[in-house]
């Protein structure tokens, strides 16, 4: 719970952070989903991070283009052991239900709740601070084995591995020319340059 409140502090406005955690109660995923089912968030795109409902950034053309290309790549190149759920709510913990751009889950768990993710991907254009900060901490604490942040501005990939309650122990940055592959699917090798120029064998 202390880790969840630490994550909560990262997202509260400074005026509220001064009084947390005495008066601010984190929202649970069950409460959040119940509100969503009743249309509380119909007019805006949000996600639950560390008990706090966070409004997500609008998606620009660069973000949408990368997501489109990655969707095709993952749909065609993932092995039968895995499935991809793009831009869907993922029950990560009691207080977190992020909406990653891609959650790659085991095929055996795709109909279960919670699903078992082996690889998370976020495409960042204006959300780098959130994706490399609180989301990385929450994914690591939630035991997600591998987490990628693809920066659409710099065309680099931050690969996070070796999750722990305090964050990922291994974080490496790769250029757009570097061949990269997830640990769960080592045959899925590609570079951002090849992805963006549509030179990947599908």
Textual characterization of the structure:
This protein is α+β, with helices and mostly antiparallel strands and 202 residues long. The chain is 29% helix and 24% strand. It is built from 7 helices and 8 strands; from the N terminus they run H-H-H-E-E-H-E-E-E-H-H-E-E-E-H. A hairpin with a 2-residue loop joins strand 7 (156-164) and strand 8. The protein is globular. The termini are far apart. Residues 1-9 have low confidence and may be disordered.
Order of helices and strands: HHHEEHEEEHHEEEH
Briefly note the structural class of the backbone: alpha+beta
Give the rounded overall mean pLDDT.
87
Describe the biggest sheet? 6 strands, mixed
Taking all Cα atoms into account, the compactness measure Rg is 17 Å
Walk across the major sheet and give the strand order. Answer: 3-4-5-6-7-8
* CATH class annotation of the domain at 57-196: Alpha Beta
Proportion of residues in helical segments:
25-40%
């Amino acid at each position: 719970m202390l880790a969840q409140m630490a994550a909560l502090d990262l997202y509260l406005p400074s005026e509220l952070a001064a009084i947390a955690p005495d008066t601010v109660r984190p929202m649970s995923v069950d409460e959040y989903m119940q509100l969503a089912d009743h249309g509380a968030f119909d007019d805006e795109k949000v996600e639950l991070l560390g008990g706090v409902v966070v409004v997500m950034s609008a998606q620009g053309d660069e973000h949408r283009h990368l997501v489109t290309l990655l969707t095709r790549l993952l749909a065609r190149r993932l092995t039968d052991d895995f499935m991809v759920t793009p831009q869907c709510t993922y029950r990560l913990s009691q207080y977190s239900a992020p909406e990653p751009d891609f959650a790659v889950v085991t095929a055996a768990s795709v109909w279960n709740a919670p699903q078992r993710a082996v690889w998370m991907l976020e495409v960042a254009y204006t959300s780098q601070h959130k994706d490399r900060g609180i989301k990385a901490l929450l994914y690591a604490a939630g035991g997600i084995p591998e987490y990628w942040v693809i920066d659409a501005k710099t065309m680099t990939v931050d690969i996070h591995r070796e999750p722990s309650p305090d964050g990922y122990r291994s974080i490496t940055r790769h250029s757009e020319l570097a061949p990269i592959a997830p640990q769960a699917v080592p045959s899925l090798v590609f570079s951002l340059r090849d992805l963006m120029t549509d030179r990947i064998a599908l």
